[in-house]
Amino acid sequence: MQYSVLFLAALAATTTLAAPTKGSKTGCDNKNTPAEAKPAGIFKVELSNEASELGRQLDFTPGHREEKKAPGGLFTKVEVGFADSEKKGDNRCQLFDNDGKPIIAVRDHKKTTTFSDDGNGAWTFENEKEIEVKTIICDPTFEVVLT
C-alpha cells in the first residue's frame, strides 16, 4: 500500500512538472514563427561553398558602416539581404581576400565588387574560384562598382 501511494504521488509530481505553464516559451512566438528567426532590421551577409557544403552568416546593422572579420573557410558565393524580406537595399557590402584586394563576383553577366540586397539571389565569385574571405565591410554610402 505504501509503495502505490508513493508511486502515485511521484507520478502526479512528474506530470505536473512536465506540463508547460501558461505563457511559457516554446519553439515559437505568439505569431507562430520560429523563435530563432532573425529580427527585422538585421542586414545579413551569407558566404557559401556548395561543393564543400560550407555556409556562414554574419549580421550587420543597416544604415551604419561596419567592418567584420570573415569566418574561416573557402567560399564561392556571397548573398546579402535583410532578415525581413520586405526591406530592400540601402546597404552595400564589399569583401576582401587575404591580400586585401576586393573580391569580384558575377551575377546576370554583371561583375562587381560591391553587393546589395536587390532580391536577385547570390553572387558567384569570378571564375567560380574558391576564395578565403578575410574582411567584410558593409556601408550605406558604397556605390555600385561594375568592373
Explain this structure:
By secondary structure, this protein is mainly beta. Helix content is 12%, strand content 35%. The protein has 1 helix and 11 strands; from the N terminus they run αβββββββββββ. The protein has one helix at 2-18; strands at residues 43-49, 54-60, 66-69, 74-75, 77-82, 92-97, 105-107, 110-112, 115-116, 123-125, 131-139. The strands form 2 sheets. It has a 6-stranded antiparallel beta sheet, with no helix packed on it. Strands 3, 4, 6, 9 and 11 form a 5-stranded antiparallel beta sheet that branches. A hairpin with a 4-residue loop joins strand 1 (43-49) and strand 2.
Distance between the termini: 85 Å
Unreliable stretches covering 5 or more consecutive residues: 3-8, 13-40
* Shape label: globular
How are the strands of the biggest sheet laid out side by side? 2-1-5-10-7-8
Portion in beta strands: 35-45%
In helices, the fraction of residues equals: 10-25%
Radius of gyration: 23 Å
Indicate the mean pLDDT.
Answer: 77
Pattern of helices and strands: HEEEEEEEEEEE
- Please provide the count of β strands: 11
